[in-house]
Amino acid sequence: MVGIAAVRSEDVSGEPQRSTARATALGIMAALAGLMFGLDTGVVAGALPFIATDFQASDALQGWIVSSMMAGAAFGSLIAGRISTRYGRTGAMLVAAILFLLGTLLCALAPSALILIIGRVFLGLAVGLAAFAAPLYISEITVESARGSMISFYQLMVTLGIFLAFVSDSLLASGQHWRWMLGIMAVPATLFLGIVLILPHSPRWLMMQGRKDHARRVLNSLRSDEEVAEAELADIQARLHKSSDAGFGLFRSNPNFRRSVYLGMLLQVMQQLTGINALLYYAPRVFQAAHFGVNASIWATTLVGLTNMILTGVAIACVDKWGRRPLLILSCVIAGLALLGVGILLAVGASSFEAQIALCGFVLLFVAGFAIGEGPLVWTLCSEVQPTRGRDFGIGCSTVTNWGANWAISKTFPMVMVAMGAASTFIMFAAFNGLFVLVTLMMVPETKGVSLETIETNLFAGKKLRDLGR
What we know:
Blueprint: H1 2-9, H2 21-55, H3 59-109, H4 113-141, H5 144-173, H6 178-183, H7 186-196, H8 203-208, H9 212-222, H10 226-242, H11 247-253, H12 255-273, H13 276-289, H14 294-322, H15 324-348, H16 353-374, H17 376-384, H18 391-420, H19 422-443, H20 452-460
Helix pairs in contact: 1-10, 2-3, 2-4, 2-5, 2-7, 2-13, 3-4, 3-7, 3-18, 4-5, 4-18, 5-14, 5-17, 9-10, 11-12, 12-17, 12-18, 12-19, 13-14, 13-18, 14-15, 14-16, 15-16, 15-19, 18-19
């Protein structure tokens, strides 16, 4: 297996194998699923104050309006593995694209809060499917030397979507046009639907379906060297033939596979406990707690989105050079210290102009810290540590966990802020970031430049989780 991995990762000149322009282009197109994810995640932050006014929504109802998308995403993640296994990763993304469009139209035209919630459940189903299928698809068409960057590009698209949603909200806020805020998402949804229709199936899924000739044609178009493509194809086939168990059967029978599933679930819980989504969904409310006006808080939220996007770009540039573990640890430390600063400022009362600027700076520092590691690398690692026959099941479990934790936090955050106070809430999130450092040191492997097959070999050999990349 070492010999095959070496052939896969290097060409005849000994240089790391690079993806072709076609593989890169297909990865970027699949990453547009992240754009839709980000748009629908970010748009509610600016629209919520005006929705609350029009529908006379209480704090509890606002929590349902926000969290209904997370509940839909959790269910979408539950069915994503089955759809992806039967119809392919592109099939799952196609269903997601259709749901994005339907959900957008329902939200924009909603005559009541109930219809709005139903529309957001549709959007959640789409997000759950897309968040499962797109990173998986990208990981399966990309060579290991570029895999971290390409999967992180998916997260960059998420942050771009959030930023564009915040900009749209800011421009429409003066007229309180929340229906336009939600309805304009139909344009990128239609674009994504058209793009998904031209994506080929991933070679690994085709091999799982016994369509070897089709897989060979696709893989040859994605690799710059036919010999490397053949070696990769042989390696995939060897993995598929090694065990008859797959999915839940493999989870039930193989304790090593259970370890990778539990690691993926733990990473997703830790990502949500950093506090990022609580901040993104309720950013205007947080800034209003620091005595920002409504319009000023929405523009400050837009700055949050811009910072998130720019620093995710930094992560893409660094992830395949610095590695996963160093970036993740640095990310947790920066985010934790920044949230501690937010908590302290809120505790003493950030009412002066100087204090407001300082609070905004700490919020932006937190977002920057999250964006260089905790955001993109969790999705990268979850797609890397699962073995071929269990990848749909393993990533499905981690994605469901992400959205379940996301739903719980977004649903309870307004009430937690009331019960604990804003200061204590953000100090609590700072502590969770510190805990994430310990989890990374103890359990997270360094997968930079390591093939998926090598990670799988180490997993089933019983190596410690943190040593899977060695």
